[in-house]
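Input set for joint prediction.
Command: fold jointly, output tokens.
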Amino acid sequence: NAGVTQTPKFRILKIGQSMTLQCAQDMNHNYMYWYRQDPGMGLKLIYYSVGAGITDKGEVPNGYNVSRSTTEDFPLRLELAAPSQTSVYFCASSTDRRNTGELFFGEGSRLTVL
Amino acid sequence: GNSVTQMEGPVTLSEEAFLTINCTYTATGYPSLFWYVQYPGEGLQLLLKATKADDKGSNKGFEATYRKETTSFHLEKGSVQVSDSAVYFCALSNTRDNYGQNFVFGPGTRLSVLP
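tokens >
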């Protein structure tokens, strides 16, 4: 059981470049999330989705875009990369519309913008 | 709003020592509480959870009790092992306007256990 799969695991970008972080889950979860993890800051929510075709902004959405064309996939797009976007990015999914379910995380994507 | 505060790290212990990592929260309504663990180079994984007041979550020798009166969810383990070295995150979850969950994470506490 693959769970949540993220690619790439590592990437170095130059300022102004664009890229897409891929995320796929095989658990048929409706809810998917993108977080960024900065040292000592915990996790900050970038975007989330409650189902195919439905996305919404989280706490720190500026500089990012998402789409959700299928239940399985939830890619995160970085346009015009900036050094402030250097971080570790985690995709996660959950199945519960109430507040009791757990989040399942991918292994993370470490992005450096130079 | 919702927030989670946990003790600053890093925490360094000798093997077989007792561990406590404090966590307090602020939330509206009746959140669920979680402890996640992140081993080096990996994503976060659920360690334990409690979904209502006075519930005790437990797993792998770790325990935490949901204390509504003190808004706390402290993580404890009686005898730590080197393999417990990781970063521990306290988190809460509230319902997001009936659509999905609103998770809020603490900053994480790095634990190092020395042999």
